């Protein structure tokens, strides 16, 4: 399976960094996470998401949004709010959330041609 980061976009835009440590009981997490990924793609202004998890259990998800309105739409989505509540009750030992306005963005991709 090939991994690739979300492309660099023309700024400004927003990055939401969600860093988590999960509990041992992840009952229902996978299904809810899949639904949240499906839902967020429907938000006008959603640009993409990067995710990484280390073997020790630290997870980092970075979601990108074109503007503050898109971010607000996602933050206030009722199904997303219910998932947040369930996350605090069942799935997360701890988490942090950081919202940043991106002022500079660039990328690199190695060419497959010699």
Task: Please summarize what this structure is.
With 114 residues, the protein is α+β, with helices and mostly antiparallel strands. 32% of the residues lie in helices and 32% in strands.
Largest sheet: 4 strands, antiparallel
Walk across the major sheet and give the strand order: 2-3-1-4
* Helix-and-strand structural type: alpha+beta
How many domains make up the 3D coordinates? 1
**Roughly what is the average pLDDT, rounded to an integer?**
93
In the predicted model, the low-confidence regions spanning at least 5 consecutive residues are none
Helix content: 25-40%
Shape: globular
> Which fold name is given in CATH as the topology?
Alpha-Beta Plaits
Q: How many strand units?
A: 4
Annotated CATH architecture: 2-Layer Sandwich
CATH class: Alpha Beta
- How much of the sequence is in beta strands? 25-35%
The total of helices stands at: 3
Instruction: Return Rg in Å.
Output: 15 Å
InterPro entries: ABM_dom (IPR007138), Dimeric_a/b-barrel (IPR011008), Jasmonate_Hydroxylase-like (IPR052936)
Domain ABM: 12-86
GO molecular function, one term: monooxygenase activity
Protein name: Heme-degrading monooxygenase HmoA
Overview of this protein structure:
The protein has 114 residues and is of the alpha+beta class. It has one domain (13-102): Alpha-Beta Plaits (2-Layer Sandwich), CATH 3.30.70. Helices cover 32% and strands 32% of the residues. The protein has three helices and four strands, in the order βαββααβ. It has helices at residues 29-41, 68-76, 78-91; strands at residues 13-22, 46-53, 58-65, 92-102. A four-stranded antiparallel beta sheet has the order 2-3-1-4. A hairpin with a 4-residue loop joins β2 (46-53) and β3 (58-65). α1 packs antiparallel against α3.
């Amino acid at each position: 399976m090939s991994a690739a980061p979300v492309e660099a976009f023309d700024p400004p835009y927003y990055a939401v960094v969600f860093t988590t440590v999960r509990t041992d009981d992840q009952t229902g997490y996978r299904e809810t996470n899949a639904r949240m990924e499906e839902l967020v793609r429907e938000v006008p202004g959603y640009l993409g998401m990067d995710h990484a998890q280390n073997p020790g259990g630290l997870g980092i998800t970075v979601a990108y949004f074109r503007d503050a309105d898109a971010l607000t739409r996602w933050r206030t989505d009722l199904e997303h709010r219910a998932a947040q509540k369930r996350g605090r009750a069942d799935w997360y030992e701890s988490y942090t959330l950081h919202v940043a306005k991106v002022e500079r963005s660039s990328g690199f991709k190695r060419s497959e041609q010699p």
